[in-house]
Amino acid sequence: MALRRGLVLLRTLEDWPYYKPDLSGEWLALITSALALCGVYGIKGIFFNLKRSREETFKAWEQYRSLVESTDDSVYLVDKDCQFLYVNQRYLSRLGLPLEEVYGKRYEDFHPPEASKEFCQKVKEVFESGSSVQYEHRSLRDGRYFLRTLSPVKDTKGEVVAVTVISKDITELKKTQMQLAYLATHDPLTGLPNRNLFMDRLKMALEHAKRHGRYFALLFLDLDNFKDVNDTLGHTVGDEVLKAVAERLRRSVRKTDTVARMGGDEFLILLSEISKPEDAATVASHLFEALKEPFYYQGEKFELSISIGIAVYPLHGTDPETLFKNADKAMYEAKAKGKGACVSFGDLIRGLKEEGREGRQGEVQAVGETVHGPGLSPHPTEVPEV
What we know:
Elements: H1 2-14, H2 25-70, E1 74-78, E2 84-87, H3 89-95, H4 113-129, E3 133-138, E4 145-154, E5 160-169, H5 171-185, H6 195-212, E6 215-224, H7 226-233, H8 235-251, E7 258-263, E8 266-274, H9 278-292, E9 295-297, E10 300-302, E11 305-313, H10 320-337, E12 342-344, H11 350-355, E13 381-382
Parallel strand pairs: 9-13, 11-12
Antiparallel strand pairs: 1-2, 1-5, 3-4, 4-5, 6-8, 6-11, 7-8, 9-10
Helix pairs in contact: 1-2, 7-8
C-alpha cells in the first residue's frame, strides 16, 4: 500500500506546479507513506555506510600498524607533554622494555635530561607551528645517529592533538660522511693533515700572529734518497716507512703544532707560535735527531735523512703563499747542499751565529749552510713486516 501511494505521489510531483493540492485524507496518507518509505531506505543506507566506513577504517588501521611494526625505524606518538600514546616494537627494542612499561610514560622517563629537553622543544615547535620538524640526534645510550621527523596529527578542526615521530638510524651514513670529510682533509696513508688542512691552519696561525704580534714558523721537509727505499724494498715497504717517519715527526713537535704530508716524500710542519725566530732552528735540530735513528725491516736496517727549509713570519713573508713559497725555496737550497741540511730563508739565523751557541753539537746558519742539532732520546723504529 505504501509503495502504491508513493508512486501516486511521484506522478503528482511530476505535474507540479500545475497540480493544485487538496488536503484530503488520501493526500496526507500518500505523503506519510512516501516519507516512511524513504526513511526506511535512507536509514538502511546510513547503516550500510557506517558499516563500510568502520570496515575501511579498521582495514586502514591494520595496514598502518603492519607498516610501522615492520619498519626498521622507531615510530611513536606523543602528546604535547611528550607522553607516549603509541610506540612500535622497534622503539621498544631500543629501550629494552615491554609496552606496558612505556605506554603512558613521558619521554624524559627513559632519556637523559639534555636529550629530553631537545626532544620536548621540537615537539613544542610542531604544536605551535602545525608543521613538521626534522633534526639529527645522537643517542647517548650507544652513540648511534638518528634522523628524526616529527609530524603533526590534527583533528577535524585543524588543531594539533599529537605528534608522530619517525626516528631513522643514519649511523652508517654519518660514518661515511665523516670518513669522506676526513679524507678531504687528511692523508689516507699516514693519517696526517693534507695540504688543504695545513693551509687552513696556516691562515689561522697568521691571523693569530697578526693580532698578538707573535712569530710562527713554516718548515718544509723532504726525505733524502727515499726513492732508493722504494726501488730496493718495494712500494709497500716504502709506505710503511712513510708511516714510521710521520710518527717520528709527530713525536718531535708540540701537540699545538701541525705535521702534514704534502704527498710523496714531502712533509710540512707548522710551529704555530714561537717566542723567537731561533726556536725554528731548535726544532729542526730535533727533527734531524728523530730521523737519525735507523729503520728496521726483516732484520735489516737502513737510514734516512731529511732536508729542511724554514720560513718565519713575519721575517720571510706576511701571507701564506709567500711563506709557503719561501720555505719551499729554502728546502730545495738545502737539498742542493747535500743530505741532512737545513736552510733558513733569509738571514734570520745570522744573529744566532753571532751570539754563539755553547753546548750545541752543530749549527744552523743562513741560506746554504748545514745544521745538525742536539739529540733527543733515541726511538728506534721497527717497520712492520708486510
